[in-house]
Predict the 3D structure of the following.
Amino acid sequence: MKIRKTAIAAAIAAVFLGIVGTALPAQAASSDCPSGAGCAWQDSGFEGREVGFNYNVADYGKIGIPGFTLQDEISSVYNAGTTGRWARWYQDHNYTGNYKQFVPFAGRSNLADIGFNDRITSGCFQNYCS
């Protein structure tokens, strides 16, 4: 009887571990943004190519990585800034035009929800937008 209970318990444990232990595909998240940075992703849901800044980015089209641009291709943003710094993402170069602003530890996983998808060209933390 004791062997049977052990076998049943082992079978239940194997089924449980098979379900719980199954590896799920990795998911991007706003938590992927390093502490103190303002981050922008190419796709909604904090997916795709990512660029972060510690102070500002005057032009996402000229970020210094050959063949890599996010100008007017950004679909999600997150402010992981510290010390109360608000982050702004602007529609035009050099922190001009319409912008969206986020308090620390806030962002938007889908900029289409607020009519700003694929419209960002520059970004900065408050006091570094010049």
Observations:
- The chain has a mean pLDDT of 80.
- Strands lie at 38-43, 47-53, 56-57, 76-79, 87-92, 96-102, 106-108, 122-125.
- The CA atoms of residues 63 and 69 lie 7 Å apart.
